[in-house]
Write a structure and sequence with these properties.
With 66 residues, this protein is mostly helical. Helices cover 53% and strands 0% of the residues. It has one domain. It is extended and about 35 Å long.
Length: 66
């Protein structure tokens, strides 16, 4: 494994640390409220798919222009 860290475009170590800190510092009530809000957002959906289909779904989503 390379000693060089790779981040997605627009991300760096500082941004990753901020995101981790946000989730590590949340109270349980905040976590639940955030999860519930995500399920209520009518612009998105949540699905269960078989694990073996995940690579195909990721490829499909990566090619989506939206």
């Amino acid at each position: 494994m390379s000693g060089r860290n790779r981040f997605p475009p627009g991300w760096d170590e500082e941004r990753v640390r901020k995101v981790l800190a946000h989730y590590e510092e949340q109270a349980e009530e905040e976590v639940v409220a955030e999860d519930e809000a995500a399920f209520e957002d009518r612009n998105y959906t949540v699905m269960e798919i078989p694990v073996d289909l995940v690579p195909a779904v990721r490829k499909l989503l990566a090619g989506h222009k939206g």
